[in-house]
Design a protein that fits this description.
- The structure holds 2 protein chains of 2 kinds.
- Chain A has 13 helices and 2 strands; from the N terminus they run ααααααααααββααα.
- By secondary structure, chain A is an all-alpha fold.
- A two-stranded antiparallel sheet of chain A has the order 1-2.
- In chain A, α2 runs antiparallel to α4 and α6 packs parallel to α8.
- Chain B has a single domain, classed as Ferritin (Up-down Bundle).
- Chain B has 10 helices and no strands.
- The longest helix of chain B has 29 residues.
- Classes of the chains: A mainly alpha, B mainly alpha.
- At the A-B interface, α3, α4, α7, α12 and α13 of A face α1, α2, α3, α6 and α7 of B.
- The complex binds fe (ii) ion (FE2) (2 copies).
- The site of one fe (ii) ion has 5 residues of chain A, from α4 and α7.
Chain lengths: 313, 259
């Protein structure tokens, strides 16, 4: 479909706000960009299970333990759902998972930071799921039907995670001095990485142009980041927590919270694999995959045997 | 309800509810260790589900235990502020997860037991316990389906999987006897139709276990092996202490804090 007339037709459909469905014709570049985005998103859900899963066995009450298991389980469901969305574009899940294990696929860098105290579990729900919601609310309007629908469904659960996270943070911020200290420390460590979740400045974002043109995205990285800051600063204040940015200042004219510059060196270092937990995260996924190989083989062998039997019968 | 019990019955019932609650708390905790590390995404989700059910049941049972005891202890107090010697769970359930086959076999042996136990407990004269049994039985039915299907797949899968799951069964056989041994506490509660007679469940348990094990082309181990005993009286393996120190770290470090 690469000739100009077809490209134009496709663009017209996009401009008219139509959803593109799996069987529709689409430019090869559109398909590739979507596979890249959706699979990165799926990998992020899966790798994201690790930093939080790290605290399941140490959750401080039975109810908190239940909520955290349920949350991490939700993320597994999101991963599964997104892999399915990617599969509608003609690639299978095994291949995508292999790309992750081989270190060829990216996932959100935020999960390469460590969870050091229980407060991190609250702050991840509040800031990381919170940032994801800002991004996904936009993606729920994406031009590709299956991705858009996946986002609508996932966003509902992310909102729940965010509320749950804020509740943990608020409880600790109002708790004994040691808890307050943990809460503030977690905000200090997760604030900047959360802002980095929205990606580079628009001027440095190589894919932004085409994604906007095809309405995969409808807002720029910087717009989304600003929206997140505007939403989050008042929440932090309400909980009595400070944001680790001396340049944070409200602008009554634009009604924006202006903020300082992100440490882009750190951003690119973590993407390159030099974050505090990059190796542990990938190794944990590889180990699960390796240790599970005999189980998957057994399930396949059993299914094959019993499919034979039922065919004969 | 529990106000009408005499002192002995109250103490017995408290201990019995701890046995029920601790089994599910410790097993649920072990299962939750799999979250994010399972052999496939679908199993991360399934094991998490079972873990959630187990811990949910433990919450109901320990809450009830606290009410029966009448000393104002909550389910969290009981979970987070007891020592290993005060835990009443089966030794089988505190064992480290091992490989997926070990976890599945442990789950299967316990699910069959839990299924028949809850079935019997539906008739308990202690109404709150009967209600928990009715509700939990529905969940255990699903757990049992999941674990027995995996026993079949692993037993009748590849040569490697058959060896691994057989190994798990051989290793765990020494722990199962404890499920059915009665002590004075349970005997007194059985007389009052409060507790289920676990010794009477052994035959049914064995029948179902044998059926699935044979269908999975596996062998039931011989009975001439050493059988563990005493975990219902707090005599555990060393593994429980480590599990608890991890689980209890925050509550113990900040006993005055709310989380
Ligand atoms: Fe998610
Ligand atoms: Fe989430």
């Amino acid at each position: 479909m690469e000739d100009n007339a077809k490209m134009e037709q496709f663009q017209q459909r996009i401009d008219a706000g139509e959803k593109i469905e799996p069987k529709d014709s689409m430019p090869e570049k559109y398909r590739k960009q979507l596979i890249r985005m959706i699979s990165q998103h799926a990998h992020s859900e899966i790798v994201g299970m690790l930093p939080e899963g790290n605290w399941i066995t140490r959750a401080p009450s039975l109810q908190r333990k239940l909520s955290l298991i349920a949350k991490v389980q939700d993320e597994a469901g999101h991963g599964l759902y997104l892999y399915c969305a990617a599969e509608t574009l003609g690639i299978d899940r095994d291949e995508l998972v292999q790309q992750l294990l081989d270190g060829k696929a990216k996932y959100s860098s935020i999960f390469n930071y460590p969870t050091l105290t229980w407060a991190d579990i609250g702050v991840i729900g509040w800031l990381v799921d919170g940032a994801a919601i800002v991004n996904q609310t936009m993606l729920a309007k994406a031009s590709y039907g299956p991705y858009s629908r996946a986002m609508i469904r996932i966003c509902k659960e992310e909102n729940f995670h965010k509320r749950q996270g804020m509740e943990i943070v608020a409880t600790m911020a109002a708790g004994v001095p040691a808890q307050k200290k943990m809460a503030q420390d977690a905000v200090n460590r997760w604030w900047w990485p959360s802002l980095m979740m929205f990606g580079p400045h628009d001027s440095d974002s190589p894919n932004s142009g085409v994604l906007l043109k095809w309405k995969v995205k409808t807002k720029t990285n910087d717009e989304l980041r600003q929206r997140f800051v505007n939403l989050t600063v008042p929440q932090a204040r309400a909980m009595g927590l400070s944001i680790p940015d001396p340049n944070l200042k409200y602008d009554p004219e634009t009604k924006n919270w202006n903020f300082g510059e992100i440490d882009w060196d750190e951003f690119y270092q973590v993407i390159k694999g030099n974050g505090p937990c990059n190796e542990e995260r990938i190794e944990a996924r590889r180990k699960a995959h390796r240790d599970g190989a005999w189980v998957r083989d057994a399930a396949a062998a059993y299914a094959a045997k019993h499919a034979d039997k039922s065919n004969v019968a | 309800m529990s106000e009408t019990f005499d002192k002995q019955t109250r103490a017995d019932l408290f201990d019995y509810l701890l046995r029920l609650g601790d089994d599910r708390l410790i097993l649920g905790h072990r299962l939750s260790e799999w979250c994010g590390h399972g052999p496939m995404l679908e199993e991360d989700i399934a094991l998490s589900n079972i873990s959630l059910d187990c811990i949910g049941q433990a919450i109901s049972l320990l809450k009830l235990a606290g009410e029966v005891e009448g000393e104002g202890r909550s389910e969290d107090d009981l979970a987070y502020f007891r020592e290993a010697i005060d835990f009443r769970n089966l030794m089988l359930l505190e064992q480290p997860n091992g490989d997926f086959g070990y976890t599945i076999m442990r789950q299967f042996l316990f699910d069959v037991y839990s299924f028949y136990l809850y079935e019997a407990l539906q008739e308990s004269t202690f109404q709150p316990l009967a209600e928990i049994a009715v509700k939990s039985l529905k969940e255990v039915r699903y757990h049992l389906r999941h674990s027995s299907q995996w026993v079949l797949r692993l037993g009748d899968g590849t040569e490697e999987s058959r060896q691994r799951i057989q190994q798990a069964l051989d290793n765990q056989w020494r722990y199962v006897e404890e499920m059915f041994v009665l002590d004075d506490i349970e005997e007194r509660l059985i007389v009052e139709n409060i507790a289920a007679d676990a010794s009477a469940l052994q035959e049914k348990w064995r029948e179902m276990v044998e059926k699935i094990i044979h269908q999975a082309t596996l062998q039931i181990p011989g009975d001439n092996i050493y059988k563990t005993q005493g975990s219902r009286q707090g005599k555990h393996s060393e593994h429980l202490g480590y599990l608890l120190s991890e689980m209890q770290i925050l509550s113990r470090s900040y006993p005055d804090a709310q989380w």
